[in-house]
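Deliverable D2.4 — example input (structure tokens):
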């Protein structure tokens, strides 16, 4: 058994992850109070704080539960995901907002079901890949079954419609299959077919197609469909290197729609300037690097996939949000983890963090010292 002193440095990764989460969450609350000034800031902030307490509770549960025992319930969790995704499409169960049926009403709050589906999907994929480690070269066990699960989740989420989350879950699922060693001759045609189907769905959806055309010619659409993105870029420009000061920005005063949700990152740029925008990106990068380095210590493929899947879901979502608000990617509704307003997304993100801390705590126990051989 190693001495306590030899185990002490292993606490550092968990501390870095927790410090990253705390920093981003506190920044989010501060900026949210400013970004929501035109939409009843007190009410918005109070609801976010309430959701934060719920998220902390769920994060603690995810951080302390026996993950190996929970694996027995992986098929049931996947089944619950399907039930939720079908239920939200049923009138009088799913709540329709702005033409999309993504939420279930919980009294004073709406809950977006796809956020919980993200957590359960990552857990199922980690379980399936870990349980079929020696069968991953099999077409059925290693490819057809997991890709069928991924494809069905993708389609059900598209029906809501929620193109951003569907793309995110597809991206994470395919990444996990690639990291698990599924052969490229299966994955590449699947990616091409999925991209073609995704493009076809966009072409037959006037709202999504308009987002692409506005993205392609922002100058011509800055007063119409590209207005939100244009105002976001204006916010970055106004902030410059030093920012205009917390609470002094103009964009949150109804100039930029959804400033407190999907487009909160430009508010950080406008009010706090380049150091804070770069700081946010550095924290997310540090978070991802620490998890990827520590994942190599995982005692088995299940823990390896679970930790990477949790980190990828957070990191990819952050990258997609930043790409959208900076004009690198077409506009889609996807929030910035820990910072954007949104209760169910905050709960899911903290559950992923709890899972990560749980993984590190579990495989750093004495007796689990052999790192995963990749």
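Example output (designed residues):
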């Amino acid at each position: 058994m190693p001495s306590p002193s030899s185990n002490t440095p292993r606490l550092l990764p968990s501390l870095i992850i927790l410090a990253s989460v705390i920093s981003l969450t506190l920044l989010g609350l501060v900026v949210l109070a400013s970004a929501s000034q035109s939409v009843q800031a007190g009410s918005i902030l109070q609801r976010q704080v309430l959701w934060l307490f719920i998220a902390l509770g769920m994060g603690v549960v995810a951080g302390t539960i026996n993950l190996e025992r929970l694996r027995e319930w992986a098929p049931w969790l996947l089944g619950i995901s399907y039930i939720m995704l079908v239920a939200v499409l049923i009138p009088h169960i799913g709540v329709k907002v702005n033409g999309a049926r993504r939420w279930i009403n919980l009294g004073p709050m709406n809950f977006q079901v796809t956020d919980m589906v993200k957590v359960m999907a990552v857990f199922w994929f980690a379980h399936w890949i870990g349980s079929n480690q020696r069968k991953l070269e099999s077409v059925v066990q290693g490819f057809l079954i997991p890709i069928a699960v991924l494809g069905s989740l993708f389609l059900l989420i598209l029906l809501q419609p929620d193109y951003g989350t569907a793309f995110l879950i597809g991206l994470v699922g395919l990444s996990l299959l690639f990291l698990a060693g599924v052969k490229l001759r299966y994955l590449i045609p699947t990616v091409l077919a999925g991209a073609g189907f995704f493009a076809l769905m966009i072409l037959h959806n006037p709202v999504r197609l308009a987002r692409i055309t506005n993205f392609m010619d922002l100058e011509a659409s800055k007063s119409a469909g590209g207005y939100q993105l244009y105002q976001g870029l204006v916010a970055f420009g106004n902030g410059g290197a030093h920012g205009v000061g917390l609470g002094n920005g103009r964009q949150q005063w109804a100039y930029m729609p959804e400033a407190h949700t999907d487009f909160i990152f430009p508010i950080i740029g406008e009010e706090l300037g380049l150091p804070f925008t770069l700081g946010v990106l550095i924290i997310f990068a540090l978070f991802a690097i620490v998890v990827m380095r520590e994942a190599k210590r995982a005692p088995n493929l299940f823990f390896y996939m679970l930790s990477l899947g949790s980190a990828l879901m957070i990191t990819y979502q952050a990258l997609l949000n930043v790409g959208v608000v900076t004009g690198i990617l077409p506009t889609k509704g996807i929030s910035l983890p820990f910072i954007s307003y949104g209760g169910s997304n905050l709960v899911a993100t903290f559950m992923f963090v709890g899972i990560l801390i749980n993984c590190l705590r579990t495989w750093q126990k004495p007796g689990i010292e052999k790192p995963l051989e990749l």
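The chain has a mean pLDDT of 85.
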